[in-house]
Amino acid sequence: MSGRLSGRRGLRILAPLGLGLLLLGLWEAWLRLAGIPPYVVPGPVAIARALAEDWATLAASLLVTLKVTGLALLLAASLGLLLAVLFAQSRLLALALYPYAVILQVTPVVAIAPLIIIWVDDVTLSLLICAWIVAFFPVLSNTTVGLNSTDPNLLDLFRLYGAGRWQVLWRLRLPAAMPYFLAGLRISGGLALIGAIVAEFVLGTGGRASGLAYRILEAGYQLRIPRMFAALVLISAAGIAIFLLLSLLSHLVLRRWHESAIEGGERR
């Protein structure tokens, strides 16, 4: 059984990796056979060369983007969890505030990012606000659903044994909502990166340098298309890394007790 699970995990890694290498090879071969120059559509080799040559500049911009994304995700997770707990404890508070959270979510960040950047003079803070707006709602929504989906039979059992409100929250409702919270966190990780990139684009069009989005704009103005694709590769790699890290966190937290993280051979 363990050998079968190991083979399944290996296939899960090798299958997409092999397909990706095949597609990259076909992409490079097509460009060479068609004679398309790199300033129109760069191939994987040209992109890798640009990534190596401009690594110092791109890496510094990547750190700026990751810093904003990480802070926005941390803020979204903290405030989302706190508000969800308050909503679960007070029906009136949920009815009063939840519609405003929905309004915040459905308002396009690209439309309000210029206003935020004008009103907030600090570059990092303005980017953080934009990224947080995008990342906040999934954590709040999923955690609220999780807290409200606690098994009513278990709630009755806790009340039967005289558990107080905070004991029920800490020992029953929060553990029951943990899979929902972690699922919302995985969604918010990618959204925080998207929000940071959108805000950087708006900031970059105003001539203020920050993050990988500015490097994409800069490369576009200079017609350095391989460098533009190299920045896009870093953004995609950052998004994949964030998703994998959050998936690993979810697995480590849930693997001992929740069905979503327990594989067939690990059930007890």
UniProtKB/TrEMBL annotation:
A GO cellular component annotation in the UniProt record: plasma membrane
Keywords: Cell membrane, Membrane, Transmembrane, Transmembrane helix, Transport
Positions of transmembrane segments: 58-88, 95-119, 125-147, 193-217, 229-249
GO BP: transmembrane transport
Compartment list: Cell membrane
InterPro entries: MetI-like, MetI-like_sf
Main location: membrane
Membrane topology type: Multi-pass membrane protein
SUPFAM superfamilies: MetI-like
Domain of life: Bacteria
PROSITE patterns linked to this entry: ABC_TM1 (PS50928)
Entry similarity comment: Belongs to the binding-protein-dependent transport system permease family.
Name of the protein in question: ABC transporter permease
